Amino acid sequence: LIFAAKSHSVSTMATEEENVGNAKQQLAKLFEVSLRRIVPDEQDVAPVIAASTGKFGDYQCNNAMGLWSKIKGKGSEFRGPPSVGQAIMKNLPDSEVIESCSVAGPGFVNVVLSKKWLAKRIQKMLIDGIEKWEPQLPIKRAVVDFSSPNIAKEMHVGHLRSTIIGDTLARILEFSNVEVLRRNHVGDWGTQFGMLIEFLFEKFPSIEDVNESAIGDLQAFYKASKQRFDDDPAFKERAQRAVVSLQGGEPKYRNAWLKICEISRKEFHKVYERLGVHLEEKGESFYNPYIPGVLKELSDKGLIEESQGARVIFLEGFNIPLIVVKSDGGFNYASTDLAALWYRLNEEKADWIIYVTDVGQQQHFNMFFEAAKRAGWLPTDGALKPKVTHVGFGLVLGEDGKRFRTRSSEVVRLVDLLDEAKDRSKKVLVERGWTEQELNQIAEAVGYGAVKYADLKNNRLTNYTFDFDQMLSDKKGEIVLDHDGERELGLHLLQFSEVVGSPEETSRLLLCEATAIVMRKCFNLLGIEPVYKI
Ligand code: ARG
């Protein structure tokens, strides 16, 4: 997490109770004391602690080199980074956390953690539960804007990625004790509704007859109305007038709009329910009333200019301006996002706002973030809060290397995709005399879990190929015991039946239980349901 480094700074941590915080935080506390002792007059010397990859220790303190370059020539007693490292080590206060220390290379201080302390911490976790291990972030409330499909248009695999990644981010923040507003910024506003409403009136002279089963497939409905819009100028004109009526709040139009939204929402909900993802909808329409006020503020601040009939914001570093009022006077995606950001900062008082969409929208986000900085909504002086982040992701490709589509080159319906994941996982599950209900539950956990895992394991920014076979391959991985620790674990597992009941086994069982607790939490943060029999 972006704030992780900051969160280890000692000054913000509780000091009254000893043993607070994870190993890294504990070490930071100790090294902070040591640094204060050796350079009492230096400002801004925060301990730099990292987990070690080498075999000389579990963690290392990497302050020596940086500190040396700060103090050399100031007449200090040190002769170079290694001697600074030695001093850092020697001035560490006594602590039960540390078993031993050594200095290596240009002053790295290696730390071996005490076995006793490790055991005590694990024991404590077994008693208190893992929730007490939550990381501390200097964030109170975050908005995670994710999933966010468009009403009546397709909810495609891109939205699936956004849903999976956004949910995991939200879970991690929630685990970090941050209050998370899980926002579904659905596209429920815009000119396409004129055409949809007009088409609805044509098909269903009485609005009472409109429901899910009557409309069937909203995507097909969207397509048909688009066709009508493109083919018939008279219809097009009616559709354009319908937009005005809708925006003017005429009940007949508003009701039709609500109907369409409701049908879409039901469809989206099916996907969320299966994935176990919780979202709160505040669609684009919600922010519409805020747009004029927000644009007035930006205009008063001198940000908005007239350009080719449109109202735009020119931003340094971008070769196109950000359009905030179209030449026909209508608002757009950007004006809505500016109003939504204003709302999230001022009404919802969020101090971190995260947007999860495909990387294709990066420029849009960079531009309106920049506009928000110019408006003074976001800090430009390096302050950490409030903060906005666009979390982009790559495309999902089909086996042909093109955008993931069905054979008939339609967008893949997510409900169908999840059905298939479940059906396929049912087939690869080895029959073990499960009840039908058990089988279904396990097939869902495995199938949906596989879809999520396949998505999350890839580099977020690169495109990835959607491949059911690979995702649900039932090949058990081969066990290789190359590492000493792996060999040891393997041996212990095989000796299980030889030693059940012995005192050392009790300790190992506790350690296994602790492992299971941590693994369960990891699954939980990834939104994957663990399966206990397979
Ligand atoms: N509805 C948009 C789309 O489908 C995503 C919205 C993302 N959130 C935002 N605040 N712009 O691409």
Layout: helices, strands, pairs:
Elements: H1 4-7, H2 23-38, E1 49-51, E2 59-61, H3 64-71, H4 81-90, E3 98-104, E4 108-113, H5 115-128, E5 141-145, H6 157-175, E6 179-184, H7 192-203, H8 212-215, H9 218-231, H10 233-247, H11 251-275, E7 280-281, H12 284-287, H13 291-300, E8 304-307, E9 310-313, E10 322-325, H14 333-346, E11 352-358, H15 362-374, E12 387-393, E13 396-397, H16 414-428, H17 436-456, E14 464-465, H18 468-471, H19 484-494, H20 496-499, H21 503-526
Parallel strand pairs: 5-6, 5-11, 6-7, 11-12, 13-14
Antiparallel strand pairs: 1-2, 2-4, 3-4, 8-9, 9-10
This protein binds arginine.
Descriptive notes:
The protein is of the alpha/beta class and 534 residues long. Helices cover 49% and strands 12% of the residues. The strands form four sheets. Strands 7-6-5-11-12 form a five-stranded parallel β-sheet, with helices on both faces. It has a four-stranded antiparallel β-sheet with strand order 1-2-4-3. α3 packs across α4 (81-90). The chain is flat, with a radius of gyration of 29 Å. Residues 1-18 have low confidence and may be disordered. The structure holds arginine (ARG).
